[in-house]
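Regression check, 2-phosphoglycolic acid case 251:
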Amino acid sequence: MKQLIAANWKMHGETHWAQKASQLAQILTSGTQKRADLLICPPAFLIPAMAEAAKDTPIMIGAQNCHDQTGGAYTGEMSAAMCGDAGASYVILGHSERREYNAESSAHVQAKARAAHQAGLVSIICIGEKLSQREEGKAEEVTASQLHASLPESATAINTVIAYEPIWAIGTGKVPSEPDIAAIHAHLRKELAERLGEKTAKGIALLYGGSVKPANAAQILALPNVDGALVGGASLEMDSFIEIANAARAV
Ligand code: PGA
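Current build output:
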């Protein structure tokens, strides 16, 4: 499978940022396109313009959240179908910032992922341990339990991506050691195989996220069971995002 390099812009961007999709398309080299799938998840209001700018390019557009219901009296919310209609083909779900600031539980993330699958979106389900949990030696246990509780029965290799994002590595410049990343990813693959069977588990992309930068991308993306990266800060500038994509492992 090609590696997936996904940009999570979080709450950054203004209308003119939509042009970054065309800018990215212009600097894409054919080598990058062969190695990696590229996804940008901007703030929701930018999705239609970004999707338009990315039309006829290999760049995909995603949302950063969706509701678990298909419609109704939910002020301020967006359904998965609305995200799709606006031009998104992916949606990030259960990011640790949403789990923390919006009190999203794994059960809630699971319901959102189910809704995303029903609407034909690929869900990127985020999981990751706190620093205290890692220091207590519980990183594998915590991430496996988040994985099982967040994964809906509708999950397949086509509609589901998992992003391992240790909370203490997000936006901090700190990154787990390479053996630590590889160990968690191997463990998650094993848990997926037990739950969904070997074949599906092999096809589900496992992304690493948390302070991925041009300087460390090649080492991280070369690790076994790392099928791509979810990039926050370093995805805001197209030059650094493309440098990360250029570090993708050749298929
Ligand atoms: P970061 O964010 O790359 O800025 O650490 C990653 C994320 O939160 O997805």
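Comparison notes: The mean pLDDT is 96. The first helix runs from residue 19 to 27. No diff flagged against the previous build.
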